[in-house]
Design brief:
Distance between the termini: 24 Å
Helix content: 40-55%
Shape: globular
Strand content: 5-15%
Radius of gyration: 17 Å
Strand order of the largest sheet: 4-5-6-7-8-9
CATH topology: TIM Barrel
Order of helices and strands: HEHHEHEEHEHHEHEHEHEHH
Structural class: alpha/beta
Oligomer: single chain
Number of domains: 1
CATH superfamily: Metal-dependent hydrolases
Largest sheet: 6 strands, parallel
Number of strands: 9
Length: 295
């Protein structure tokens, strides 16, 4: 499979695979004031970033939507997340409104360990949320917090995936790594989860969780790219990566628009692994289509 070396080459990439487009499970849309603050934090290489990280796609919301549609991204998330209490409920209202006006959006919600979290998460699920973003690295909270136990159970019962940044990249805190989230899975083994960035840099630990829990998925976000700030992927895990991908449990994620390289580079990096066209089809579309029940 030819590697797409520019954004203009992306449609030819998925067409050559015989796909009707691609699905990206790790895309950020959020209120513009919050998005601008996130971009400023990246510009300043803040403590949770720890390295120079230029943003490639700083356009308006409408321009970013048009860009994804032009690439052939047929479905994508709108990952928004709180960094403190009192934000999540309002973010869920915004992401619900965004999904209502953007048909390609997989409606997204989020939460934080705080009073009322169970109630507003239930409202978000009732309003149609199909994936819930949980950012342990930025939020700096313990996923085992007692306020969240009922929430994890609610997600497990509903079959709604939690897309969790639980790895310690780019900067660790006391609640990242496979241990804390692994304890959540032990309490809620039926929870559907998508581990962002494949759990970088603790790849081995999160692959072990995927082995232990059949509803754990991994997203590709930033892994294998030339921007190796999170960690180098160990060659020893490539056979397991292939098997999980063919089983529909490795999903394309990019971190668009907050990436320091062209969108195509993520796809180029996946194609360069030479794991086969069937693997690319499963990762770039079919696994996510099955998980979210997309046509």
């Amino acid at each position: 499979m030819a590697e797409p070396r520019s954004d203009a080459a992306v449609p030819a990439f998925w067409q050559a695979l015989g796909l009707p487009g691609i699905i990206d499970v790790h895309v950020h849309f959020m209120p513009q004031r919050l998005m601008s603050a996130v971009w400023e934090y990246f510009d300043e290489a803040g403590p949770l970033i720890g390295t120079e990280w230029p943003i490639t796609y700083r356009e308006s919301e409408e321009e970013r939507l048009a860009f994804l549609r032009g690439l052939g991204v047929r479905a994508f998330t709108s990952l928004a997340y709180p960094h403190r209490p009192g934000m999540a409920d309002a973010l869920n209202e915004w992401t619900a409104e965004f999904a209502a006006r953007v048909p390609e959006c997989i409606q997204t919600a989020t939460f934080f360990p705080e009073p009322g979290v169970e109630e507003y998460t239930a409202r978000a699920l009732e309003a149609g949320a199909r994936v819930v973003k949980v950012h342990l690295q930025v939020g700096g909270f313990d996923p085992r917090a007692k306020e969240l136990d009922a929430v994890w159970g609610m997600l497990a019962d509903a079959g709604v995936p939690a897309l969790v940044h639980a790895g310690s990249g780019p900067v660790a805190n006391g609640y990242t790594g496979p241990g804390p989230f692994g304890e959540v899975l032990a309490r809620h083994p039926g929870l559907t989860a998508i581990v962002a960035h494949m759990g970088a840099p603790e790849f081995e630990g999160f692959f072990a969780l995927a082995d232990a829990y059949e509803r754990v998925h991994l997203d590709t976000t930033m892994v294998f790219t030339s921007f190796a700030r999170l960690a180098e992927f160990p060659d020893a895990l490539l056979p397991r990566l292939r098997d999980l991908g063919l089983a529909g449990r490795v999903l394309l994620g990019t971190d668009f628009p907050n990436i320091p390289y062209p969108y195509a580079h993520q796809l180029e990096s996946l194609a360069a692994l030479d794991l086969g066209d069937d693997w690319l089809r499963a990762v770039c579309r079919d696994g996510a289509a099955a998980l979210f029940g997309l046509p």
